[in-house]
Amino acid sequence: MATGVLRLRSGLSLLRWAITVSPAETSIGVRNFSRNFSSSSPPANEQKVKVPLQMFGVSGNYASALYLSAVKANVLDRVETELLTLIEASKHSPVFSQFMKDLSVTADTRSKAMEDICSAAKFSDITKNFFVVAAENGRLGHIYQIAQRFSELTMAHRGEVKVTVTSVIPLPPEEEKELKETLGHILGEGKKAKLEQKIDPSILGGLVVEFDRKVFDMSIKTRAQQMERFLRQPISLDGL
After folding, report:
1. Spatial distance between the Cα atoms of 23 and 210, rounded to a whole number of angstroms
2. CA 53 to CA 194: how far, in whole Å?
3. pLDDT attached to residue 230
4. Cα torsion for 171, 173, 178, 182, to the nearest 10°?
């Protein structure tokens, strides 16, 4: 464990150096809906809200519409929790998961089922109406993609940036805190890192940090490969 922590610290030091010198970078309108997810009429002085990210396609349209409704009703956190709760539940219920994808079920049956499920779970009106609209329009099969797009919107709303960190062992609390502080300086004011940790013993040590289509590879595996390529280069004896 001590060796693993030392390797993590080495990775953190290299991350700071790589960012300040020359990081290696790799590139990896909401339409109007006939029915609003809100259950009440909007007030005359309703706040103007814009989506923080422009999204396209079915999942992008639904996610954006849900985001706008949730922000206007000041229930964004609750709606996000409810959406993810139902998504997680569907993963553990093959029958329910199949039901959401089965377009042979009538729209009325789908809508009534989602309304009953959301009511039993005591979901907010915004979330319940969202699922009912999705059911009516035959879009329940897109729920997983919609949830992913919605999470991207909520992260942008909070100034969060998803950062994937790969290491050989889970980051100890002090190392995670140090990494977040380092990333905070990199991301700039008003933004904070939301870490997603991955364990990969094959990198041998160090860290691989990915965010905003940038990759900072400070793994021992990559450094060893670079050293191997360097050592294989022919040595010129001219001038000796």
Report:
1. 11
2. 17
3. 81
4. 60
